[in-house]
Amino acid sequence: xxxxxxxxxxxxxxxxxxxxxxxxxxRIVVDDRxxxxxxxxxxxxxxxxxxxxxxxxxxxxxxxxxxLAFIMPNDAAHHIADQTP
Length: 85
Known about the structure:
Layout: H1 3-18, E1 27-31, E2 40-44, E3 50-55, H2 58-61, H3 65-83
Parallel strand pairs: 1-3
Antiparallel strand pairs: 2-3
Helix pairs in contact: 1-3
């Protein structure tokens, strides 16, 4: 089971619990723009849906899938905190 398959339902459920009525349909992407540093971040797309992005350099730096699984909800928490009154 991939990190995204495992973690996406969990972070979406937590978002709905903590920020009812907000958009919690996360899209998980790999930021493949050249020259990006090792990073993960959250942002919104043009229609207000949350995105969690991992840059390509970050992925091989992770020692295992558990590290990536730790990063994803951390970035989701930033979105949830921004949406919570």
